[in-house]
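Bench notes, bay 3.
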Amino acid sequence: MNILLHICCAPCSIYPIEKLRLDKHVIGGFFYNPNIHPYPEYIKRKDAVEKYSKTVKLNVIYSDYDLEDYFQHVVYNEDTVNRCPVCWWIRMKKTAKFAKENGFDAFTTTLLGSPYQDHGALKSICDDIAKSAEIKFYYDDFRTGFKKAQDMAKTKGIYRQNYCGCLFSEKEKIEKKIEKK
């Protein structure tokens, strides 16, 4: 199957790329993450994906950094329970649209590899988007390879971030550090 893989960051892409290829799929990458802030953080993550994708010979499309659209959707949805599903919806909708318009059979996402995401909610959102976009959503629980991929990223010196990417999660991370002190 020809699958478009939405990529959130280089470390999270390691296992899904490996697994999809092992399962004999043809894959292309799609980097669309307007949620990542501040902008220098976005550039670090994009650069890491560019470097890693060259080493594994993966063609990746880099979509626009549409932070205005992101903020328009998350306004009044700042709490984690609402914010994360809105963020996933924005990114998966664009991924599915791109996949459909460019001849892919299906789409999937590296977000399915993170133990920090609400896996059930993310899968449900992707299923709904696939139905409305008239394209398949390829589901695989990539969490099984998360630790191995993170260890590999660390060993290879691939940039690893310490928050999901959005301004709100960065604030939450800082607040937790302050609380510990």
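Next record in the batch:
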Amino acid sequence: MIPRVQRILFWVMLLAAVIMAVVLIRLRERAHDRLLVAADNAVPTAPLNAPVEKIRLLVANDADGSLIPVERSFPMPKDPNARARVLLQKLVEEYSAPKSTHPIPNASGVDEVFLMPLAQQKGEMAVVNLDGAFVGAQPSGIEPETMTLLSMIATLHANLPQITEVRFLVNGQQKDTLAGHADLTRTYLASDTETAVRQ
């Protein structure tokens, strides 16, 4: 027989352990929420002394399924990863603007872009980590989803020609499709966009 005092002590310690676990889980969730808010508020920008450069955005046009070259001037960072992220963020801002030719209401867009050298050939692969809110705002359908991806790939390649392949993640995870149709499990080639670019 276990003495009554030991049983009471066991149950008190068990209750204390459960309460501590709940408190720790809640503190972890709060810290995670604070990190997400900080990440959402962190707008990709170039250093204040960065030179203003002309960038070429390939904006999707839903009316005829083409990519329209649009030039903008913007201070650009020197780091290629940051540069790629700023390029895509500016492209996404075009889509959230009034009278956009490819409207997507969420301007959060791209969390990060990682550039990696290709082992077997010249060039680099860009791994684009899309924001879940942007993906949720993406109009569903093979045509609009494909145009979103092609415009991102073409914009990266036009400004950073060393990028020859692009892969997409959503919130750091592989997802099967963008919004139910366009395949996100494959690697896209920059050459896939050539026929869609309006001359």
